[in-house]
Structures are given as structure tokens and as C-alpha cells.
């Protein structure tokens, strides 16, 4: 998949209900569910992960196992971003057009697209390995 395809797939999920550990858009998604569907790797994603109080190195190993490679520099559509919105909490988002991200917003109880909150430090940045161009 190209980055644009990933961004479009994530954007198509906007409005989907939020559900912790959700992997089915009919029932709801969390941030990992959005990522899984956007990159087309739903079977490879665990359900028993720990983004709260989790281990950053384990999350990085998961990203690698999913075919994501570390990226630096400018964020491009389809890039996978990892944020720390609170102490001991990690959150995945997909870069969309411009400065928008798509992510499962627990507070709003749905998948949303919007600018990244300024108070969320970005602690990870990946791209799908060998995308088609």
C-alpha cells in the first residue's frame, strides 16, 4: 500500500464508534484497530497489548513485525505516528492530508480527523515498508 492509500483507508473510518480493543468497525475501534484496518493487517494485530503503562520497546517491536520501518523528517500521508498523550499512555494515529491525523478518540467516542494536539509529544514515526509508488 502507498502512504496515500493508507491515509484514505484511515480517513474512511472517521465517524466509526470508539471501542477499547475494538477491531471491527461495525462494533467500534480503538487506535490499534484504526491502524490495523488502515494498513490492511488486521490478522497480525494483537488484542491484549498494553498502550497504557506499556513498554515502548515492545510497541516498537510490534511496529517492526507489522512491516513498519522507522521514519524521520517530514510526516507524509499514511505515516504511522505514536504519541504520549499522558503519563504512561501511548496512542497511535495515521497522518492524513496536511497536518491532520486520524485516530480513535476515546473522549469523543469515535474515530476523528483533526490536527494533532500540541500537548501530545510524538515519540514514534513509521512508514509501511516498501510501499508501491
Descriptors:
single chain, 133 residues, alpha+beta, endopeptidase fold (from Nostoc punctiforme), 6-stranded antiparallel beta sheet, two-stranded antiparallel sheet, 21% helix
The CATH architecture comes to Alpha-Beta Complex
Average pLDDT rating:
87
Domains (count): 1
Assess the beta-strand content as a share of residues: 25-35%
For CATH, the homologous superfamily is named as: endopeptidase domain like (from Nostoc punctiforme)
Provide the CATH topology: endopeptidase fold (from Nostoc punctiforme)
Helicity level, as a percent range? 10-25%
What report would you give on this structure?
The protein has helices at residues 3-11, 31-39, 56-65, and strands at 23-24, 28-29, 68-70, 80-86, 89-95, 100-105, 110-115, 122-128. The longest helix has 10 residues, at 56-65. The chain has a single domain, classed as endopeptidase fold (from Nostoc punctiforme) (Alpha-Beta Complex), CATH 3.90.1720.10. It is of the alpha+beta class. The strands form two sheets. It has a six-stranded antiparallel sheet with strand order 3-8-4-5-6-7. A two-stranded antiparallel sheet has the order 1-2. The chain contains three helices and eight strands; from the N terminus they run αββααββββββ.
Amino acid at each position: 500500500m502507498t502512504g496515500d492509500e493508507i491515509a484514505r483507508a484511515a480517513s474512511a473510518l472517521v465517524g466509526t464508534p470508539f471501542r477499547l480493543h475494538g477491531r471491527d468497525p461495525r462494533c467500534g475501534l480503538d487506535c490499534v484497530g484504526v491502524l490495523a484496518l488502515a494498513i490492511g493487517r488486521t490478522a497480525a494485530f494483537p488484542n491484549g497489548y498494553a498502550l497504557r503503562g506499556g513498554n515502548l520497546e515492545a510497541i516498537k517491536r510490534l511496529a517492526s513485525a507489522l512491516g513498519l520501518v522507522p521514519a524521520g523528517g517530514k510526516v507524509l500521508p499514511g505515516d504511522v505516528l505514536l504519541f504520549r498523550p499522558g503519563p504512561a499512555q501511548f496512542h497511535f494515529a495515521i497522518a492524513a492530508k496536511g497536518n491532520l491525523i486520524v485516530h480513535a478518540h476515546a473522549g469523543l467516542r469515535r474515530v476523528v480527523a483533526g490536527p494533532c494536539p500540541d500537548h501530545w509529544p510524538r515519540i514514534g514515526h513509521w512508514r509501511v515498508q516498501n510501499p508501491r509508488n
